[in-house]
């Protein structure tokens, strides 16, 4: 745990008692803060009270003595409208912050400020976060990993010499961290997502930009420049005098890191100064993973690792569950769990990485559906549609792609496995890449991916 000393002897309101909220409450109490916590869920309140965390309805709180409202990232700050606790705080002139902000304040109070890498983007955050932590550990560093991926940030070990923090940051967390100031900030990409919580793409991009715009003096901003939003952000950050490392998997760069075939190339002043082959690294298959690898490479270099050490670490990276995870091969059929692909942009990354795909898709649809994936339909031999989105996806596929209305994942896995095995193709792939949220049938994408893995493991070879 990282005790939060910056609110010692001060009164703090806390709303949201899920995993990160409980970790934040513990950290505040350990640092000597006077905490009053609440949640809209009676079960969450009961759980917190059982731990000895002071609880009480924030409606009845005397806000005149409260120094801050610490808000869990899942609670609306601005859109579709501020949560009632936010309105109470704002009416009283009380700042509204989150756990990432508390960490940043503690880091600035440390005798020796520990290195801190923060990672964001619409897609690829978790893989990049895990890969960077892996590289640092290969290089002998004590890498603490958490935030939006892994443990809550304040549940990590406290700062000490040689310790590095590698933190995934969602847009919700950034919105609650006004003084976010990493030593290395990574912005991978931007595409429409979470617009119900940010109101517009413009506001969503502005929030994400804060992570790289806030990089501390002497730090490094690592930015993918393959979309117009991020290109403009990179130009603005560099124009403000920050060091920027640009990344591209679509074009060569005179300065930065780009993809040439299956090689990552580090360029300086138009010269190629280092080449890192990615061919044969199954955990980093596809151009999207090349971008993740490029970002992790740039961040590891900024944190002091030698290119040769980074190359060794990249070759040994095991990958992440639910992100193009190679589950099993039966005969010549490869089964891939890409349950984390909860939107079309993420599913595109899987579709471009394979040929001869037997595609399991569907769930709770997001805006735009799978229409953006039409250029990749020729790669799909057949689609197996599940969940609420099945009818909509069937209409989009039309006559271009054969499909089967499966309804549930178990039916889809059985049908896709049967058809792939009988296809006569050399390298058929049964791919779960839903392009949808899971919430119609599963509590989260992890449970959906776990179910896929279990279903595949039960198939007879």
Automatic annotation (TrEMBL):
Pathway entry: Cell wall biogenesis; peptidoglycan biosynthesis
Binding site for ATP: 121-127
Source organism, top-level taxon: Bacteria
EC top class named in words: ligase
Reaction catalysis annotation: UDP-N-acetyl-alpha-D-muramoyl-L-alanine + D-glutamate + ATP = UDP-N-acetyl-alpha-D-muramoyl-L-alanyl-D-glutamate + ADP + phosphate + H(+)
Gene Ontology CC terms, in alphabetical order: cytoplasm
Domain Mur ligase central, first and last residues per copy: 119-300
Keywords of this entry: ATP-binding, Cell cycle, Cell division, Cell shape, Cell wall biogenesis/degradation, Cytoplasm, Ligase, Nucleotide-binding, Peptidoglycan synthesis
Domain Mur ligase C-terminal: 322-436
GO terms, biological process: cell division; cell wall organization; peptidoglycan biosynthetic process; regulation of cell shape
Localisation per UniProt entry: Cytoplasm
Membrane spanning residue stretches: none
EC number from the UniProt entry: 6.3.2.9
Any one GO molecular-function label of the UniProt entry: ATP binding
Pfam family, one: Mur_ligase_C
NCBIfam families, per the entry: murD (TIGR01087)
Function (record text): Cell wall formation. Catalyzes the addition of glutamate to the nucleotide precursor UDP-N-acetylmuramoyl-L-alanine (UMA).
Protein family: Belongs to the MurCDEF family.
PANTHER family: UDP-N-ACETYLMURAMOYLALANINE--D-GLUTAMATE LIGASE
Protein name per UniProt: UDP-N-acetylmuramoylalanine--D-glutamate ligase
Organism: Ancylobacter tetraedralis
């Amino acid at each position: 745990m990282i005790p939060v000393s910056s609110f010692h002897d001060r009164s703090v309101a806390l709303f949201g008692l899920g995993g990160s909220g409980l970790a934040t409450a513990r950290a505040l109490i350990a640092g000597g803060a006077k905490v009053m916590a609440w949640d809209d869920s009676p079960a969450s309140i009961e759980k917190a009270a059982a731990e000895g965390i002071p609880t009480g309805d924030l409606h009845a709180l005397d806000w005149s003595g409260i120094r801050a409202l610490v808000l869990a990232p899942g609670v609306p700050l601005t859109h579709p409208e501020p949560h009632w606790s936010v309105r109470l705080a704002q009416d009283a002139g009380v700042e509204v912050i989150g756990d990432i902000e508390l960490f940043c304040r503690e880091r600035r109070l440390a005798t020796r400020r520990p290195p801190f890498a923060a990672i964001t983007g619409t897609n690829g955050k978790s893989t990049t976060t895990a890969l960077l932590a892996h590289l640092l550990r290969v290089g002998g560093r004590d890498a603490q990993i958490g935030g939006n991926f892994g443990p809550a940030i304040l549940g990590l070990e406290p700062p000490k010499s040689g310790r590095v923090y590698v933190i995934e940051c969602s847009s919700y967390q950034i919105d609650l961290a006004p003084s976010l100031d990493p030593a290395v900030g990574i912005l991978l990409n931007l595409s429409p997502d979470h617009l119900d919580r940010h109101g517009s793409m413009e506001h969503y991009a502005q929030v994400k930009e804060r992570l790289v715009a806030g990089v501390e003096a002497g730090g490094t901003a690592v930015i993918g420049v393959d979309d117009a939003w991020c290109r403009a952000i990179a130009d603005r950050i560099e124009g403000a005098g920050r060091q920027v490392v640009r990344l591209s998997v679509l074009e060569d760069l005179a300065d930065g890191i780009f993809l040439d075939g299956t090689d990552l190339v580090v360029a300086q002043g138009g010269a190629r100064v280092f080449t890192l082959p990615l061919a044969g690294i199954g955990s980093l298959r596809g151009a999207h993973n090349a971008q993740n690898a490029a970002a992790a490479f740039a961040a590891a270099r900024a944190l002091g690792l030698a290119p040769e050490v980074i190359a060794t670490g990249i070759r040994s990276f095991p990958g992440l569950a639910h992100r193009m995870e190679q589950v099993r091969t039966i005969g010549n059929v490869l089964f891939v769990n890409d349950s984390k692909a909860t939107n079309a942009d993420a599913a595109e990354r899987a579709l471009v990485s394979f040929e001869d795909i037997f595609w399991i898709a569907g769930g709770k649809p997001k805006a735009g559906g799978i229409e953006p994936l039409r250029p990749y339909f020729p790669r799909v031999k057949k689609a197996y549609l599940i969940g609420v989105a099945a009818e909509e996806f069937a209409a989009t596929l039309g006559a271009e792609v054969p499909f089967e209305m499966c309804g549930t994942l178990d039916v889809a896995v059985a049908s896709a496995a049967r058809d792939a095995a009988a296809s006569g193709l050399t390298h058929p792939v049964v791919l779960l890449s839903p392009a949808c949220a899971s919430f119609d049938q599963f509590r989260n994408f992890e449970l959906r991916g776990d179910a896929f893995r279990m279903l595949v493991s039960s198939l007879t070879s």
